[in-house]
Amino acid sequence: MSVPTLSLRTFAAGDAAARARFSDDLMRGLQDYGFIILADHGVPEDLLGAAYARSAEVFALPEAVKRRYAAGMRGYTPFGTEHAKDSTLPDLKEFWQIGRDAAPGLPAEDFPPNVWPAEAPAFQATFSALFDALDRTGRILLSALAPKLDLPSDYFDDKVSAGTSILRVLHYPPVPGDAPAGAVRSAAHEDINFITLLVAAKGAGLQLLDRDGTWLPVETEPRNLIVDSGDMLQRLTNGVIPSTTHRVVNPVGPNVSRYSMPFFMHPASDVSLECLPSCRGDGARWPPITAGEFLAERLREIGLAK
Ligand SMILES: O=C(O)CCC(=O)C(=O)O
Ligand SMILES: [Fe+2]
């Protein structure tokens, strides 16, 4: 048994039967593993290549330069800042976050200006393009999932087009000799958002906790995406689509950097995560909450907000 691979082309260019099959496979993959691997996803391979190159360039800048670009939920977050919700040890990672640009009609407080490094002029164009491409792909995936929840296929569109989604450009440096005992690159956690589209890392380390309690490596070629369901989708679906615990372990071979780029797809802050009628079953497992309230609570729990 391993995480299933799905081709998005069979959905995007397929007939009704092929689309229904894709929806079934996506739903089953998320229910059985919380993860699928997505091939033929429409994000150009040369854009992924450029993103890896620009990412390595920026993280190679001196620490003091990078720290000038620390601005909360945008720009740089230094090594050792974030920790998993249930961990006291810091994750061994640094990252750069890119959000949706502010636009008329969107609440300004949710869309602070992006922060771009002057030392790497191509970074902005590359990551703006990657944000848009992953946003498009994520919307297609949600439109494929909607019918499985008895929803119209465009149900998620307006919720995520104004969403507070984040593209997180991640660098796990070689594990330092003085890292706290027990600290790992990314401690066991569940993602907060609806779905995550992860540009597959070039190095091993990602593992999911399967339904039997076994850690299973999640690996694919760098040109594919890895998709997982987060807590907001779990909440909306009353657990019908669970979020899956995962982690990034420290290297066992050469102690080298690892780069990855998760795109956390969030709804707009005012979207209710109250359980969908089709998922009520014997009753709602969680009280209603808005996406904005849920996110604020989790950001406090992981050390990214006060
Ligand atoms: O780096 C990875 O492969 C996964 C990162 C991750 O799970 C996260 O940032 O939420
Ligand atoms: Fe994650």
From TrEMBL:
Catalytic activity: L-arginine + 2-oxoglutarate + O2 = guanidine + L-glutamate 5-semialdehyde + succinate + CO2; 2-oxoglutarate + O2 + 2 H(+) = ethene + 3 CO2 + H2O
Broad EC category: oxidoreductase
Pathway(s) this gene product operates in, as recorded in its UniProt entry: Alkene biosynthesis; ethylene biosynthesis via 2-oxoglutarate
EC identifiers of the protein: 1.13.12.19, 1.14.20.7
Top-level division of the source organism's lineage: Bacteria
UniProt domain Fe2OG dioxygenase: residue ranges: 163-267
Keyword Metal-binding (UniProt): yes
InterPro entries assigned to the protein according to its UniProt record, in alphabetical order: DIOX_N (IPR026992), IPNS-like_FE2OG_OXY (IPR044861), IPNS-like_sf (IPR027443), Iron_ascorbate_oxido_reductase (IPR050231), Oxoglu/Fe-dep_dioxygenase_dom (IPR005123)
Cofactor: Fe(2+)
UniProt keyword list: Ethylene biosynthesis, Iron, Metal-binding, Oxidoreductase
A Pfam family assignment: 2OG-FeII_Oxy
Matches recorded under PANTHER family: 2-OXOGLUTARATE (2OG) AND FE(II)-DEPENDENT OXYGENASE SUPERFAMILY PROTEIN-RELATED
The family this protein is said to belong to: Belongs to the iron/ascorbate-dependent oxidoreductase family.
Protein's name in the database: 2-oxoglutarate-dependent ethylene/succinate-forming enzyme
Source species: Phenylobacterium koreense
Lineage: Bacteria, Pseudomonadati, Pseudomonadota, Alphaproteobacteria, Caulobacterales
